[in-house]
Every structure is written in structure tokens, then in C-alpha cells.
Amino acid sequence: MVRLKGISGRDPKELAVLDMDEHLKDERLKQKYVSTMFDILAPGYDNFTRIFSFGMDRAWKESLIAEGVRRAAPSPRILDLACGTGDLCTALAERTRSPLAFGCDLSEKMLVEATRRASHHRTLPLQFALGNMLTLPVADASFDIVSIGYGIRNTHEPDRALREIARVLRPGGLLLNLDFYRPTNALWRELYLGYMSVSGNAAGWLWHREPVTYGYIASSIRRFLTMPDFEAALTRAGLQVEWRKRHLFGGLGLHVARKVG
């Protein structure tokens, strides 16, 4: 049986009383909004993602991991940002003989789920802690791989996040990124975001009896970058795209980018 929601998530009404537009305009408020939202979503999040994407999430991540591992240095140190339940972090650690796979997230409840998942992989060097990708408490050039699944879109400043990622990557290190993007074609953009809005609100009501819990997805995509704009931001941060894959006509993209120099 699919578990839609566990009993340990926060009350969805905590999110419903927050003004989404006001919170997404301000860095400090957006951080509060996002952490509250993911504390609510954490129980059952993996099941939701799999169902909402019609199973495609698993294939997208598998494709990204395969391309990243193929290009990675031997025994890479891994940093997984916005790690959520730790699925990317765990999969990369399994594939690479990593001496350290460190995941960080703004949501305490997500880290509870990640720790629970890690308990089934005791031989892997998994560690998790609270952290903000805009201000990483990590030394320069200390990781070989940085991975992110659906995370940069939730920051207030994507360029700043990419600069932080480039800072903590060793020269030649890799960024593995998966996210939704604002489609460039105006007609498809409105159809795509309209679908995401309706289906997200419906899912929010079904899972949590509060549409806004997943209604956020369409709003965050509308405020985010197009895929070409994201690639330009990668270049500005000193990261060179080595591999990309477009899905949903540019509404979702996978990237493997290497730190120049």
C-alpha cells in the first residue's frame, strides 16, 4: 500500500496562513516558507514524487546519476544539496565508493526521513545536517561532486547558489542537477504551468487537505529560469556544461557541468 502521508509531518495549516507571493519575494521569508513546506511534505514525499511524475522521476534520476558517475573522479567526495530524503546521495555513494556522502537540507523533517533511509545502508558513509546552499559552511574546493534534485529553484538567488557550488567544488569537479524550468515557448509555458497548477493543487488537497502544499510547484517554476538562462548562469559561475537532457519540451532538464580549471 502506498503511504500518502505519515503522522510526523507539520500541520499544513502552518503553510496555508502564509502569503505565498510575499514570502517568495524575500530571501529570508522564502527560506522560512520553503522549510515549512518541506517539513509538511517530508512523510510520503518519495511516494508523491513518483506518482506525480508518473514514475518518470526515477528514470530522470537514474539517467543523471549514470552520466555523473561515468565522468566522476575515483572515490569522489559527494555533497548533496537540498538532499530531501537522501535518495540521490545514497545512490551516488553506492555507485562510486565515496569516502564521504554528505547531505544537507533546510527541512528538519526531510533529514529525519533521510536518516531513516540511511539506516538501511549502514555500510555507506552517509551524513546529514541542516544547511542552506546560499551559505555553505564548507571549505573551498572540498568536494568532487555536488548533486541537487529540484533544489536551486527553491532558492532566492540561483546565481549565488551556483557560485557557492563552484566554490566548494574541486577543480574539475562535477555538478549534477535536476530541476523544473520555465519553458521558453509562450504557448507551451501557459499550458504546462496551467497543468502543474491544477494538478499540484489537487494533489495538495488529496495528500494534506491544503492545495497550497503542492500548488507551490507551478508558482516556483513561473518565477524560475528557462533552461538556456540556467545554462548561462552555470557559465557565469565557472561551470561548463558537459551533458544535458531536456524533458517536457524544456519544462524539466538534467545537467552535468564541470568546474573549469
Helix/strand class: alpha/beta
CATH superfamily: Vaccinia Virus protein VP39
Question: How much of the sequence is in beta strands?
Answer: 15-25%
How many domains?
Answer: 1
Rg calc = 17 Å
CATH level 3 topology: Rossmann fold
Compute the number of strand runs.
Answer: 7
What is the residue-averaged pLDDT?
A: 92
Please bin the fraction of helical residues: 40-55%
How do the helices and strands follow one another from N- to C-terminus?
HHHHHEHEHEEHEHHHEE
Q: Mind describing the biggest β-sheet? A: 7 strands, mixed
Unreliable runs? 1-8
Helix tally equals 11
- Indicate the CATH architecture: 3-Layer(aba) Sandwich
CATH class type: Alpha Beta
Approximate shape: globular
Q: Strands across the major sheet, in which order?
A: 3-2-1-4-5-7-6
How far the N terminus sits from the C terminus, by CA atoms, comes to: 49 Å
Structure summarized in a few sentences:
The protein is globular and about 45 Å long.
